[in-house]
Amino acid sequence: MPVNDTRLLRLCTLLLTIIASIDSSADACTTAVISGKATVDGRPLLWKNRDAPARHNEVALLTEGPLRAIAVVNAGSRRSAWMGMNEAGFCIENSLSTDLRQPGKKTGFNNGTLIKRALQTCRTVADFKQLLEETNQTGRRTDANFGVIDAQGGAALFETGPTSFTMFDANDPAVAPHGYFVRSNFATTAHDFPANPTPEQLGKIYSAERYSQACSRLDLQKDKGITVDYLIRHLTRDLSQETGTPHPGTVNGSAAPLPATIATKNTISRTTTVSAAVFHGVKPGEDPRLATMWTILGNPSFSLAVPSWVDVQTIAEPLTDENGAALGEIAITLRDWNKTDDGNSISTQCLPGIWSDLWPVEDKILTLTSRFQQARKEHGYSVGAITRFHQKMADLAMTAMQQELREMKQAAITFPAPPPPTFAPVKKTIVIP
Amino acid sequence: MHSVSNFLLLAACIFIPASLQSVVMAEETMPVRVAILDFPASGSQGYRNLQRFLIPKNGFESTVISPEAIRKGDLKNFDVVIMPGGSGSGQAKALKPEGRAAVRTFVKNGGGYVGICAGAYLASSHYEWSLDLINARVWDRSHWNRGKSNVTIQLTPVGSEVLSNTNSKYNIYYSNGPLLVPDNQPDLPGYEVLATFESEVANNGAPTEAMIGTHAIIRSKFGSGRVICFSPHAETKNGPHSLIATGIYWAANQE
Fold first, then answer.
1. Is the model more confident about A265 or about A397?
2. How far apart are CA B115 and CA B105, in angstroms?
3. Long-range contacts for A334-341 (Cβ within 8 Å, ≥24 apart)?
4. What is the pLDDT of residues A177-225, one digit of tens each?
5. Which of A127, A228, A408, B239 supports an S-S bond with A122, CB 3.0-4.6 Å?
6. Confidence of residue A377 (pLDDT cuts 50, 70, 90)
7. For residues A51 and A312, is the Cβ–Cβ distance under 8 A?
8. What domains lie within chain B, and their CATH numbers?
9. Which residues of chain B make contact with A337, given a CB cutoff of 8 A?
10. Beta-carbon separation of A413 and B181 below 8 A
11. CB atoms B183 and A332 under 8 Å
12. Neighbours of B219 (CB within 10 A)
């Protein structure tokens, strides 16, 4: 009956809206594609803070495809990848954009399986574009903004629905005047926004805060040129207020005491951030195997970055485990202990101590890696040497994280609590053989 | 309550002629009346293990009690309630708000509470569904599913005094129990540490070194009642049964 059909349709629409909103809040991400024109060293950069319900992540080698690749995956799973790079220097990430969904049943690649396929088969941005064109015909289950860079200087963003996509070239000054694109969880093509919408244009759209905060951080740096270090320290760990002003005492904030708690529902380093990656590409003509994947397992505010390369023979132990890489699991423990009871904020009391312990170690890893990469360019290194260096950096990070865990545990055990009551002397103990 | 009988016993010893004291002394042999929570969906075998040694010969009389019976007020017939292993949130859900309130009232008025593993999670002050009987949080709760294995616990000096005058270290079965640490809820007293974990289980992604040194057995008061929480399982086949039996006996006595 028409009336019932209408009610049913309304109900279905309501349910779909609810499901979409649940998905978009749980599985989100903040990302940027940065052309070599906008970076200090002329190499493209790619960044993603992964916001997902899958808290346990690891770094994995994907060796079964035509191209060898390295990626961040859900722990214990190799069916999908959520950010990664391959031996051709092609790097890819995504941010969920449910506004690209279309009604009807879909088959084909979803966001994670498409990333995996791209890592196994695409050498360039053009290859990825071709993969999308081919799968436009057969259909996909994709609803995401895919950021990609390659070893030829390519840097682009693809707003990708199930049967169509729109490409934005970060090297094209007409659409990317500053040489980069930021995306959170909306597609400009779904709303008739320009390629780089302003906060005013976005209005109250979901994830507008994170988009605006990321744009703001990159805008501040664009004249000096963007670097890997800047993305790792200042983007992945941004903790800003809803107005966009960074909280005092945080990495981008004024040098003032932290507020007692910080709401992290809509910050870039947020309640649901489970990992982050920054890809440092190569210049045209450079060995694509020099491309570096910097991975932060766990929430970036409680963890630190470790470099990986496609050439490593095995992933360093702290970064890989089917139940969750050890380094990321410690970050989960640390964050868990510092979150408020409702889970939507963090208590900041321990943050200065954590940062003052971890960031100097990360600085050391960045410096050592920069030297190592320079030496690789000059002399070339064996895969064994690359693997050993990767292991050494992971061990440095793990040692720092393990120490942080010990200190946090000790603080928990010795936490000042009210005194215990006095008890009457014990009357007897019972012995049961 | 058992402690009421102790008071009578003391009064009797002072005021009753010696010829009558032997009658009153028999009071002391009255078994501790223990209620052990169980319900069909609890998934716990803990009550069976407990009932094997909570017998009159050892000074106990145990009864399995349902959440419904607790809600109806049946705890008034017992000296101590044991919340055994299973699921802390599951126990809280089965008890419902009325049952949780009934347990709190029972302890507040002088009843004893023994939490074992899930029952220790339930007693803590950490979760929305917690009973808030003891001022304790759970360290590394993200990795609660850290695994099952035998571990070593070390009794503190107070722990030795309360639970054992023979050994200070025990090999004991651990099964995803809470790693207890102090909380600072202002309306609750602190707790005393009776034992700490000296070795650990770190499976399913749980970080190594997270468990060692955290608190395995703790005690405190809630109102007039005594509360003791065991993270590991002293009630399983290999015990140490003396440890848990002594803990239950201690909890059954009012302050």
1. A397
2. 16
3. A334/A298, A334/A302, A334/A303, A334/A404, A334/A405, A334/A408, A335/A298, A335/A299, A335/A301, A335/A302, A336/B140, A336/B141, A336/B142, A337/A408, A337/A412, A337/B139, A337/B140, A338/A302, A339/A271, A340/A261, A341/B128
4. 999 999 999 999 999 999 999 999 999 899 999 999 999 999 999 999 9
5. A127
6. very high
7. no
8. 1-30 (no CATH), 31-252 (3.40.50.880)
9. 139-140
10. yes
11. no
12. 24
Predicted pLDDT of residue A102: 87
Residues 315-334, chain A, touching B (beta carbon < 8 A):
321, 323-324, 326, 329-330, 332-333
Report the residue of chain A nearest B143, measured CA to CA.
Answer: A333
Structure confidence by residue, pLDDT tens digits, B13-65: 333 333 333 333 334 568 999 999 988 777 777 788 999 999 999 999 999 99
Q: Is residue A395 less than 8 Å (CB to CB) from chain B? A: no
Highest mean pLDDT among A100-114, B2-16, B178-192: B178-192
Inter-chain touch A417–B191, beta carbons under 8 Å: yes
Both tokens of A183, joined, read 């995306």
Nearest to A402 among B53, B137, B209 (CB): B209
Give contacts of A336 with chain B, Cβ < 8 Å: 140-142
pLDDT value, residue A26: 53
Q: Is A412 on the interface with B (CB under 8 A)?
A: yes
Of B165, B205, B255, the CB nearest to A423: B255
* ipTM here: 0.83
CB A272 within 8 A of CB A51: yes
Residue A103 banded pLDDT, cuts 50, 70, 90: confident
Contact state of B190 with A326 under an 8 Å Cβ cutoff: no
Q: Which residues of B touch A326 (CB under 8 A)?
A: 207-208
Residue A158 β-bridge partners: A146, A167
Name the residue of chain A whose CA is nearest to B57's CA.
Answer: A432
Rounded Cα gap, residues B180 and B197, in angstroms: 10
CA distance A354 to A351: 5
Domains of chain A: 27-412 (3.60.60.10)
In whole angstroms, give the CA distance from residue B55 to residue B34. 10
The answer to whether A405 contacts chain B (CB < 8 Å) is yes
Six-digit token string for A174: 């007409």
Please check whether residue A207 is in contact with residue A28, taking contact to mean a CB–CB distance below 8 angstroms. yes
Instruction: Give residue B47's pLDDT.
Output: 85
